[in-house]
Every structure is written in C-alpha cells, then in structure tokens.
Amino acid sequence: MEINQLVQASKKGDMQSFIQLLRLKEELIYNIAKAYTQNSHDAEDCISESTIRAYDKLKQLKDPEKFYTWYISILVNTCRKKYKTLNREVEYIPEQHDFATEEIMKSTDNRILVEGILEHLKENEREIIVLRYLRDFSLEEIAEILTIPVGTVKSRISRIIGKIKIKYGRCSHEI
Fold it and tell me: Is the N or C terminus of the chain more exposed, i.e. has fewer CB atoms within 10 Å?
C-alpha cells in the first residue's frame, strides 16, 4: 500500500494502516526521539505519547504526502515538552550514536569527532544538526518540524557550522 492510501485508511479509523505507516519509519522515529532524550526509556515514552496525539489529530492532516514531516514535528514538540515539564537541564551523554548514518560513522575517528561535536552543542543546535546532517531532512522539512521559517533554519545551520569550525578547526570533510 502507498503512503497516501495508508494515510487515507488511517483517517477513516483503520488503526492497522496507521501502525503500518509508523513501522515504515520506525527506526527514524526512534532515532530522532533518542537524539532528543538521550535514553531509550524517555524516547519510547515520547514516541508513545506522540503516536496517540498524532492518531487523535490525524484528520487535521491535509496533505498525506507530508505525514512523516507532520508526525516528526509532533514528536519533536513532545520531546521538548517532556524536558520543560521535568524542568531539568539535560547534559548530553553520548551513548551509541545509532542515529548517525553509516557514512559518517565509518571510522572510529569520525565517531569520536561527531560525539565530541554534538556533546558541546546546545540542545536546539544539536537538533538542527541531527535533523539536517544525520537524518537528511531538507531545509523545508526542518522548518516544518521546528515551526520556524526556512531562512531561520539556514541561518542557524550557518551559525552552528561557523561555531564548529571555530572550535574544532576546518575538518577534512564538511559536516
């Protein structure tokens, strides 16, 4: 079944179609949640809560092609809300960065470099870098997910890359 058909069936109350939609991007969803929460339990909690919210609001989705961008924005907002309600400052502790692409993580040196860079970024900086370079979302998709203008996404990426270059020097390969 095509994504459009699955979304339409889900809108009509077909829970199996909705579950199938989420299973198609299960790894991506988990990896994004874990990148925000830094642990499996909180990631799973956020996914569960986001899934319930998304299913409840599914009829509001106008463009079935944007289902995943729409769902990820709900997930990101849920992860952010979790941190606000817990009112805690989360220190980034690198676990196994299974959310990173294999290309970036091919060598141990690259993995150490990526972990070190992510460790020193603020949460909002880390989220943009993870979405753009480790999850390969387009600038437009990131803007939708974070509900900010595309120009803001571009300027933040530019500022973060500049910050990384100053702190770590020019890398042999661009991020």
Answer: N
